[in-house]
Amino acid sequence: MITLWELGGKDGRRYSLFSWRTRMALAHKGLRFETQAVRLSDKAAIAFSGGKTVPVIRDGDAVVRDSWKIAEHLEARYPDRTLFGGDIGRGVTHAFNTWVDRTLVALMMQVVAPDIHERVEAADETYFRGMAERITGKTLEELRAGQDEALKRLGRGLEPMQALLKRQAYICGEQPAYADYILFSLFQWARVMSPHELLGPEDPLSAWRERVLDLFDGFARNVPTA
Ligand SMILES: N[C@@H](CCC(=O)N[C@@H](CS)C(=O)NCC(=O)O)C(=O)O
């Protein structure tokens, strides 16, 4: 049995965006796993991993930290139901992972940080505020006031994916794979922690998100959300 360490918020919400990539990868491979919720500021709980961030998995003797390294580990150890579709696919997916993390995560953070702050465990509120304000360079109150503008900036950042998803069902083509879960993790982060709908009904990203939510018997749909 694989164990996944991830962030736990108020009312059982599992809100680590990077851990959602791992969750989806495990479901994609049909692997059974159990989860351990940790608080954002509780570094002692994950000290065994040698780092300070989740996701972390323990898979037999192996402890792996960092969502990308975990995806590579799962692909190497459980090659059926591929996440990448071979070496070239792995390289391209890594490029996509880097682009999403360097551009879209920051844009999404500007939109959802004030809502996340209201739903983290009380003991994590100060830690989360410090982290979000350091990353964005704005106070949570400034972010709240600028939420509409931030949503527009996010929309511009997502435009290439909107154009793509008019032409194909998934980021990876006809079937979903790890690159879909990379982008999906941002929307699941928002869905679990923010009551605001980010996508209009006509947005191709909206239909794609619904398709991903339906995967694996509604695995990502049927969780506590905002
Ligand atoms: N590159 C890492 C990023 C992991 C990450 O930043 N995780 C966040 C939660 S979504 C975290 O644990 N943050 C705690 C902190 O920064 O103190 C990955 O892909 O796993």
Summarize this entry quickly.
This protein is an alpha+beta fold. It has helices at residues 17-28, 67-77, 87-117, 125-136, 140-145, 147-167, 178-193, 204-218, and strands at 2-7, 33-38, 56-59, 62-65. It is globular.
Q: Could you give the topology of this structure?
A:
Blueprint: E1 2-7, H1 17-28, E2 33-38, E3 56-59, E4 62-65, H2 67-77, H3 87-117, H4 125-136, H5 140-145, H6 147-167, H7 178-193, H8 204-218
Parallel strand pairs: 1-2
Antiparallel strand pairs: 1-3, 3-4
The protein binds glutathione.
Task: Describe the fold and architecture.
With 226 residues, the protein is of the alpha+beta class. It has eight helices and four strands. The chain has a four-stranded mixed beta sheet with strand order 2-1-3-4, with helices on one face. A hairpin with a 2-residue loop joins strand 3 (56-59) and strand 4 (62-65). Helix 3 runs antiparallel to helix 6 and helix 3 (87-117) packs parallel to helix 7. The protein starts with a strand and ends in an 8-residue tail after the last helix. The model has no long low-confidence stretch (mean pLDDT 97). The structure holds glutathione. Glutathione binds at residues 7, 16-18, 40, 52-55, 66-68, 131.
